[in-house]
Amino acid sequence: MEPTIGALLLRLREESGRSQGDQARVLSELAGRAVTRNEVSRWEREVRIVTPFWQHHYAKSHDVDLGDIQAAVAEARAARRRAAKGGEAVRRRDFIVGAASLAVPLGVAEEPRSGQVGHSDLDRLRRRTARLRRLDDVLGGGDTAPVYAAEVESTERLLRDSSYTTEVGRGLHVLLAEQMQQAGWAAFDHGDHRQARSFYDDSRRAAEEAGARDLAGNALAYSAYQQTTTTKRGTADADASYEVAREAASPRVSALLLSRKAWAHAVAGDAKQADAALAMAREAIEQPNDRADPDWVFWVDAAEIDIMAGRCWTELARPLRAVPVLERVLGDFDDTCARDKSLYLTWLATSYLQAREVEQSAATLTRAHDLAAGVASTRPAARICAVARNLDRHRDLPEVAAVLDLVRA
Fold first, then answer.
1. Which of 25, 86, 122, 235 has the fewest Cβ atoms nearer than 10 Å?
2. What is the spatial distance between Cα 392 and Cα 387, in angstroms, rounded to a whole number?
3. What InterPro entries does the database record attribute to this sequence (predicted)?
């Protein structure tokens, strides 16, 4: 097997007797453009893949054939794809084993054949739903959509075929509304917009039947978010989502709904409404909270509000606002959340382009492309292609040509 590029660069440098600082100086002299020791280190560790511009100068710096460098780059990219697919396969296997244990027919332990659903069964279902919700951190909708849809069917079957008290019945309807929102989000992430709309509509009805106004508002927020993607006209549902939920919403729920309202208005080009909603979202997330938040907002924090702000400012073509906040938050964002980080990087790449930092935009889009490899979601690819189209007019730059070749492949 051919060496990957990091291993090859390390071997060539060590054989030449150079330090990483020495290598950086040689490259800088050859290219007429400064490169740092830290960047040499990143290339050797394959934190970043060396771009075609620097591949050429690496070959000259060690008097080796450029084809050897290019072959090692290709092997590194192939290894990343294999690792991504293998990691997802392991996670899927682990999940299937866990899901099999969860699929035991539900019943009260003391009366397994009675068909009576009690509070302990409801609590067990809530815990399972919370565990399954966290799959979305590491898997795309292509993996999770059938799982979440099966959970919806299971709870619908319980509501239809089992007996329970009024209180437990309300809890089951709340649970069903949550599960439908999970299923709708996964369908949306997988590109099945018709199915997503159906789940969101059904979720709102289930939440309203249970009197869960915060969940009903969240169903509208999901619907609005989808509309901003498909028609760019989600402001009506986004506004309604917060109004429906505001009296019942915890501070974290309010922050979520307000941030999605800000996004809908930013996509619509309404800077005033977007900024007002963002300010309210920040105020909400910072409020002291003396009651338990629902599990479906476990991921909402100040960093998520900042990311949404950066995305909004990008949509509104305000790169001087967007770039600093996106750089700061994404610097600490875990790469294991590959889909989300890849998506967020595309907005940073767009903001760099708006600020006329074209090479930086291309480098950022390359990182987004690398992270998105093997992710079962249609959204990163769509965003990456959209940014690439905007970069195309700069394809005479080596960094841009390289990422456009990646996207095209």
1. 86
2. 9
3. TPR-like_helical_dom_sf (IPR011990)
